[in-house]
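for the record, two folds in this file. i put them one after another cuz i was lazy. first one right below, seq on top, structure tokens after. the second one comes after a little note so u can tell where it starts
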Amino acid sequence: MRLHRLDITAFGPFAGTQRVDFDELSAAGLFLLHGPTGAGKTSVLDAVCYALYGAVPGARQSGQGVTLRSDHAAPETRTGIRLELTVAGRRLEVTRQPPWERPKKRGTGTTTDKAQTWLREYDTAAGAWKDLSRSHQEIGEEITQLLGMSREQFCQVVLLPQGDFARFLRADAEARGKLLGRLFDTHRFAEVEKRLAERRRATESEVRDGDAVLLADAHRMQQAAGDALPLPELAPGEPGLADAVLGWAAVARSTARERLTHAHCARTAAESLRAEAEGLLGGTRERARLQRMFAEARERAALLEERSGLRSEAQARLERSRKAERVAPALDLRETAEAEHRQAAIDEARARTRLPGTFAQDGAAGLAAAARRVAEELGGLESARRAEQRLAGLAAERADLEREERADETVLQDAEEWLAGWEETRADLQARIDAAQQDAARAEQFAVQREPAQRRLRAARQRDELARDTDAAQARTLASRERALKSREHWLDLKEQRLKGIAAELAAGLVDGEPCTVCGAVEHPAPAQRVARHVDRDAEERALAAHRDADEQRAEDERRLGLVREALAAATAEAGDAPTSLLAEEWEELERLYGTARAGAARLHSAREESRRNEHEWERRTADRQQAALRGAARISRRDALDREQASLEEELLRARGDAASVSARSAQLERRAALLADAADAARAAEDAAQRLKDADARLADAAFRAGFDTPRAAAEALLGDEAHRELQRRLDAWQQEEAAVRAVLTDADTVAAAQQPPADLEAVERAAEAAVRRLQEAVSAQDAAARRCTELDRLSVRAGVAVRRLAPLREEYDRVAGLASLASGTSADNERKMRLESYVLAARLEQVAAAATVRLQRMSSGRYTLVHSDDRSGRGRSGLGLHVVDAWTGRERDTATLSGGETFFASLALALGLADVVTDEAGGVRLDTLFIDEGFGSLDDQTLDEVLDVLDSLRERDRSVGIVSHVADLRRRVHAQLEVVKGRTGSVLRQRGAG
């Protein structure tokens, strides 16, 4: 890295713009930055650091943001730093402007502009600068990547603070470790120590939890065994717990199996007794049933004999009804014809009452002829009716003309009133349009600022929400892991139980005479029986499916947790560290201003539309006024034509209507008369037809009754039954027949007759004996089931305890291994003789490299007297690893660096700083550092030592480096010719540069 040019504006003590040409200063390889105390020498170095990293060195970080601005600067001058440098073969220009509180352009008060950053690169092919980025984050990442150093490393390696290294020489191991940890980024080794300690605690907890689970299973086995055997007195974590529990479980299982054998024998005896009692009970119940059936059948036969007369009468009644059904169609036809004749006579009488007396005795033909004569007279009035309708239309047209005239008068009056205020309305609308356009311009300005503010606020809210979601996702992940583990244990338990009962499962498919699928035998004398709570294949597969579902849910929860964490990182990068409430306040203020401007801008469209509507209204009203005048002239001609047509029509109507009030009235009289005559003629013809149909129906009915065997049609009608009565009578006959057949079947059955001849059965005594046998069997079955469950539960818990013991073995081995590594890394292990932590060990290696690099320059500065060496001895009761001693060649003794004098401490710290710069540079990837600064400390050297130190610094030019010395020592101005002087004044400091010539 080589610096070329630095421009400082309104920064620190510099009121105006100051420029530093590092190319000129670096020509001699060594240059001096001097000036009185408080003039601003360190501010030049702060400007370099701020340009690269956007922050000043750590000891002066309180001067960030607005406070970096010079108090001497003019209000309109903005603070800015521009640095031109070459790094990694690329010539770059970095410009940074911190936040600026400037006067408002309108009104009074101040407003704050945000910080801005630019990064440009010089394109040698095009001979011009090209923009790379304006993002603070992107520029910071690019600079850090190119330099290979963080800000803290840069301040220690390029801006060598001698006071810090003097304190480093005198510091204890802990203070040295903090500084070296920041420079070499060894926190990952500290993280390894932390992870090992956490893993040790976790495995220890798992081992204790496993012992607790094992002991809990032992208590469950004791409960299953009936608390007959006492458990060993052991606690979780004690040695021998697993062997003691497994041995006790074996004894409990043996005792339970003995009890199961006794219970099985008792059940076999009870089953034999129950089978005998059930056989006797079944025979007794069957004999009692048959005896009861025979007695009931004899009673039903006597009842049927008593009702035989009613049955014969019902059969005769049903037979007469079947004969009468052949006459039913003729009866229905006669009733229909009689109803139609009666209704036709009523209609004829009603129609004749509406006719004049001259037509009372006319027949159907006479009435029809009269109707035709009236219709002919009605047709002659059609022309007069049209004339009368036209006369009514003329009156309507006159009314329409009058309405149009009144409407045109209203239109003319409205148009004149509206057009009188047109000019004033147009001026008001134009003023509203101009105001809305101004609001639209302001709304566009605020809209540009809304999107970045809204995006940061949305990201901040998402950051807060995702932080909560992350906690919830972690809880769900832990819960799903626990469920997956439990479902796996349940599946393994069921699988073990099924394997134990697989013989019974295979025996269920055996068939006598068919070979066994296992041994091939065709005889199966004693197939295995399924015990209580047998686990079949379906139960095992359901448990396996549940385990797979739980494992998939665990994987899904872990994936979602990763997604939430990635989203949280992205939202944090977008929103930054600003609180959500502050961003919300900024967004609300901006939204309020934007809403006000937008509301004003929204009125632009309505104002323009209203102006356009008013223009159209002006054109419409002007046209309406002209059209109304034209329609008035046309109405005068139309009225004259209507008067002439009305006189002609009135003369024609006077001739046509006769004595009637109008042609319509005359026409209505003739229409009513023609309709009445036509209705009367139709009714007379209908009555004649109905009378003839009634006569024909009477003849058919008499003939049908005679053929069916009835003397008169009335007798046939009385014999006919309705559908419901017919069905009821048939149902009663069928029931009598079915009852007779059922009684005959019971009285002739051989078993029933034989049972009736035996003595009555004593069913109650046999049932009491059978119930006693069932109770004894139930007690035996309950005892056997309890013994089987005890054995099954003890077997299951024993298997579970064995699995737990096998699972705990690798956990305990892992705990021993992790505990040893954690103790070794933390420096508490007996194998770690020097009690050195892992991070201290790494830093000790780095410190040894720094001491070796510093010794090369220290020997030259001290004329070969002093050598820096690393020491890993313990100091007091603390840990070792970061000791630093100096070897005095004159005495041959090694002593602590805190015993050096002031001048010796300076050149030792300078050598240490230069050595540290070389080591950090190599650690950062070998980035070349062509420009270094050394701050203060030269006043403590005598002339000879100062010459030797300057010779060492001057030798750095051999590697094409330039070194800037920051000091106010007057003797250095004579020795170093290239100088940058900081001159202090009441209006601020200024820079004066002088080259090597």
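(here's the note) second protein begins now
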Amino acid sequence: MVTTAEQTPPGAHLLAEDLPAVLDGPGTDAPGGVVDRLLRFGPLTLVLVAVGTFALATFAVVLGSSPGRIAPWWPAAGLGVVAAAWAPRRRLPLVLGLVLVTTFAANLGFGGRPLATSAGMALANTLEVLTVAWLLRRDGRRPSLGTIEDVVRFFGAVAAGAAVMGLVAGLTVELSGYADLTSTARTVMLSHAASIAVIAPFGLRLTRVRARLRRVELGIQTAALAVAVAATYGPDQGAPLTFVVLPFLVWGALRFPPRVAASQLLAVAVAVTTASSLGSGPFTHEAAPGAPSVSHLVQAYLLTLAVVTLPLAVSVSARRITVEGLAASERLFRQGFNESLVGMMLLRRCPGAPDHTGVGHVAGGLDVVELNVVTARLLEDTEDDLLGACWTSRLEDHDRHLLHGVVAAVRRGSVDGWRGEVQLRTHHGHRWLEVALSRLPESVGRDMFVGQLVDATARREAEERLTAQALQDSLTGLANRVLLRDRVGLALQTLPDDGPGLLLLFCDLDDFKHVNDSAGHTVGDQVLVEVAHRLQALLRPGDLAARLGGDEFVLLRPVADGEDDADELARAVLDAVSRPVLVGAQPFTVGASIGIVRGARGATPEDLLRDADAAMYAAKAEGKRRAVVYSDVHRERALRSVRVERELRHALAHGGLEVHLQPVLDLRTGATTAAEALVRWYHPERGLLAPGEWLDVAEQAGLMPELGAWVLRRSCALAAAWPVPGGGTAGSGADAAAADRPDAQAPAVHVNVSARQLDRPGFVDVVRDALAETGLPPHRLVLEFTETHLDEVSDALLDELATLRDAGIALAADDYGTGYSPLTRIIELPISMIKIDRRFVADMLDDVRSRAIVTTLVRLGESLGLEVVAEGVETPAHVAELRTVGCRSAQGYVWSRPLPPEDFAAWLAAGGRRSA
């Protein structure tokens, strides 16, 4: 709608927007239309208001001035009120001025009244219009008749305006001497009140009912009303039947929109006024035509009809709109209820009476009153079977009791509603539902609830899978470390004060690495799964089996039966694990080393797992395939391991280690041909430490690859700087005479290699990098593997070791004779040297078997073209015996202990020869 830039009163735009629909009817609210232009109160509107007011005022004046005629109402007052009620604030003075001028002109020009009286009457009309319009639009309210409150407000405004009109008009005629104040005031008050009550509703915003107009009924009612008016006010009709019209007006007010009732009221007013003016009807039958009493009767009659008809029509229309709104809300609710994507139920608190299926209800439960299709699908039943049934009886016991408590709490007012998840029994198992439950007002029904259901089964299953992944080992299905720690903590908290406490068995599989190396990790995983099944079979209710990773398992017994319970369980585990595991048609045999610890109140899960782990390592150290109960000795060992590991790491990072060298001599010439590199630790507090005091900790801590690589680089760097025995630095040509001797060459260096180094990928690259960094020729490097490690060499590593041998690097089998490797392994591996273990050398003088082993190994080496070195030679007698059996190389204390690098260099500079 187009508006001017001038200020308008609050609500004026709203009023202007509502009036088109009122005046033009539905579907005509078009911006720029006739009504839109009229509401701007431009010149055209003002002209129409002026003309209409003047014409209606003149008509009333002329009608009242004619002999034998009466003017029981003043139509101009109704039109003036409508114009003033809708006029913008800036146009209101102009509208009031028009009312003043036109009514003055009508009274003066056609009414024949004196000038002062006409002016007073015009002023009275203007003040009346202003009073009624101000009351109707006060507080920015719309000038409407939509509710009973609006009707009361309207008739109050009409009464106030009529009172103003009567007072001013009465004073005017009294002061001018034109007429009596009382009679004039009574006459104008009734006539103007009736006029405004009959005409003004057409200009106010009436309630529009969306219901279809009953045209046939309207025609019948209108015809009946016309007959009643004609019968009462027709020519020569004087019977006192004025009440006959009222039922038909009430009929219209009850059955049709307020605008129809207002239209019929106006029509009746015109008919009654016309008939009474012509002398017909019961009001003029006994009185002379034009008598004041007739006019008063007609005015009172019309006002009575308006007071009865308009409130009734408006109240019925408002009720009809409310009913239509409720019906629309009901339709929307039903549509949303039935077409909802979630399950919807209307429920009533179960009184405990049996349902139609004969199944007893549980008091406090919820009966199904209504449901949608989704609910029936979620509950896996038909709507007919669910209606009237107790829904909560289908829940699991815990959830059913929970819902009963929720219903009771909602009824008490403790909570407004509830939302949660429940488990439902269905024909095909169980289903998880997310439920939102709310209580409905008592107006809907007593103890009525609405429930919304969403299937949460898939989400709960996904959560359970995630929980399983977080708390279970993915390979074996056993508990993982997180769940184990939680269960151990719970067991410690619930332990009785007296009793043997809980029991924890830490199991590590023995020789499991052979399975992975020989058959692959897939087969190894199958072996682990079978071991897990066997361990689970040993559990009692309440026990727990867990896999910590790799081949480590833990058994938890929250409450031990007695002192012997640990031994019995450990024996059962050893027996179960030691049985061969068949994968396909191939059997695999593993064992278990078990650490046992008992827990009591005050301990922590971390303490128990640490102590059990220490006991397990003690079992491995004692020979594997056994169980060891944790004691203070293991505690001390564990503390020592922690301390030594910390100090060893510091020494490795800050140069606290050094390589000592023990000469290897040729028994025929006494010349130094090589030196074995042996690592030593210069401890800041304990002095020089041999490997036997800390090497086990390095193995357990996983430091061997790093330590072995350092020893290799350090040994190669030292060997690269060694002089030719009796001459200068190797390859320097400093002593030509020494270099010209046939046996003049710098010694080789023997470096021990641990199994951990072989396990780590890239071992061959580490060797090559060490040679490249130090410049040591490959033929001067010997890598020593203990015999027990020979079986752990995989086929892939075997090929890599062969490339080292082809490059000139020698490979030696150290401590040979102490392991269980078959002789064929020597042929399979690229070995070029055998080192006889010191125990056989030490006992060969007194033990025939030891001498036979030494002799055999020497002969074997000769036959296979392998160099043989005897270790641990300590006396000249051992030297002589070794020469007797044909051994050509040896090392031991008889010649020298391991020497620091500078002492060994001096040894070589002095000639590097010793005789025993």
